[in-house]
Every structure is written in structure tokens, then in C-alpha cells.
Amino acid sequence: MKSITRTIPTTTIIACKASFKDGKLISEDLPAIIVPGVTVKQENALKEVEKVHGKVGSYVVKSVTTSEDVYEISVTDFFKYAKKIEPAGVPETPTK
So where are the chain's domains? Predict the structure, then answer.
């Protein structure tokens, strides 16, 4: 049976929250941020951290890794679950 495959990137961002307490620098590890379907560049990782944890506070991005996984679905299941869309720039044809 024929199938459709697709390679999907997933970016994992490891960060910590930095703060001062009694004149000492405190580093609090944050849960990993998983961004499916997107390759996040190092320079944009802080924006992703702020989306999740808010802009209040100071954050340090410790690492950004991207992996690619290949997914497969049979053509039959694809048509069962997929939603048909019109190509970009082509107006929809009204149905009666």
C-alpha cells in the first residue's frame, strides 16, 4: 500500500531563570520547551522562552537542539483525516 511521508522538525529549548537573592546569583532550571514543526534558531530562542514563561524576569538559554523525525501515513488514512484546501492565491469556487 502506498504511503505519504513527511519530515517534521522539532526544537527543544533548555533555559533557566536568573535572579539575585541576598546578593547572590540564583539559577532556576525551567522545564524544557518543545516547539514542534519549527526550527528555532539560537537568536530566536529567548523569544520562545518569553512566550512560555512571560517577559517578567531574566532568562538564559542554555541550549537549542533541533531533531527531525519522519512520519508516515497511508494514502487511505491521509484522505480520511486530511482537510482539502485551495492553493494560495486561488479564489474558492462557491458551491451550491
Answer: 11-67
Q: What is the pLDDT of residues 59-68, one digit of tens each?
A: 999 999 999 9
| Cell numbers given for 88 | 494560495
| N-terminal to C-terminal alpha carbon distance within the chain | 35
Its pTM surpasses 0.85: no
CB-based contacts of 88, cutoff 8 Å, min separation 6: none
* CB distance 33 to 12 below 8 Å: yes
Question: 60 with 42: CB under 8 angstroms?
Answer: no
10-residue mean pLDDT series, the chain (96 residues)? 94 95 92 96 95 91 97 95 86 64
